[in-house]
């Protein structure tokens, strides 16, 4: 316990948390800037990018789930002081991520138009043309995205989150500058925002992979491990990644279903929900940023066989998450009336946005630290099936069905959707908090 406490001092925790938070904030702000720039390419371009990004999110979550599985395994081997095994696991993660993402990219490139027409129906020809162009270029970047996530998993597992933050800064500068040139100088429309993303992601993938080979790292890639298939290491990674991927997949499908429900509520409610979601994403940053910290810290404690230290850090990290989330959600809510000045919305719509943000932020501060960040700690301990079952059942039985009941049957509209969302968080929060307190997670093994 004493050794682990020294290892994860306040200074070391701060060195992990702050870069992760700033990286997530930067990605969010750049995403908003991208939306603003692409709006100058015309409505068809905005619609095409928006629709394809919903599709791309599915694969982004898959690559993230795979990297999270790798991060758990790497962290546990580091905790056991088996840095070579951690390095071989990281190398295997790189190999599998590259192969998997190339296969996904090939499938999307071959069937892109058919997939788009299946999902989005008979949209206008100009919008479909934008969708096809943006998806084709996006698919080329899938391998770069997966390879970057693999490298980021390694550096986050050893606590060097500042490196991924610096890479994110440079990558996003490339992206924004490229978008400005592509849209305003080259007048390339959708391609003008798609190619900069491809270039930025490729830059990040190449740079982080090169850095992962550096011998000064306590855990590193080696060519002999990358090109030698190790079934045992991949089983360990996939044991975490597959349940996580299934959970995220169900969540994305439910989001699509909820979008269909929201579309029934009329223009002003649809607009309010869209604006509120952009503010929700900003408010959720604190809880999201803490997820990888739980994986690294709990993973290393469990790898070292020190369940007492893991228990200690579960409580400590949860307190930190609650504190940061509460302060951040309060700040975003107080700034919401200021944000509203930038939107050309009716007063009724603006009032609805503020109510939606209030509902979200209260529960994002109080419940999400348990339903989101803490659940990553349970996964890092190897308790992956339980978290998957609870999350999938709650997403469908609570979020989806309650949205239908409150939103449509009781005619509460988007307020009902928001209440269903926070009920989902609250139920998961209670169950995951109970699971952590029960100590059942101490009996699982990943490696």
Automatic annotation (TrEMBL):
Transmembrane domains' residue ranges: 20-38, 58-78, 90-112, 132-151, 163-186, 192-213, 253-272, 278-299, 320-340, 352-374, 386-406, 412-434
Location of the protein in the cell: Cell membrane
Main localization of the protein described in the UniProt heading: membrane
DNA repair among keywords: no
Membrane topology: Multi-pass membrane protein
Keyword terms: Antiport, Cell membrane, Ion transport, Membrane, Transmembrane, Transmembrane helix, Transport
Family as reported in the entry's similarity comment: Belongs to the multi antimicrobial extrusion (MATE) (TC 2.A.66.1) family.
Function (record text): Multidrug efflux pump.
Protein name according to UniProt: Probable multidrug resistance protein NorM
Organism for this UniProt entry: Suilimivivens aceti
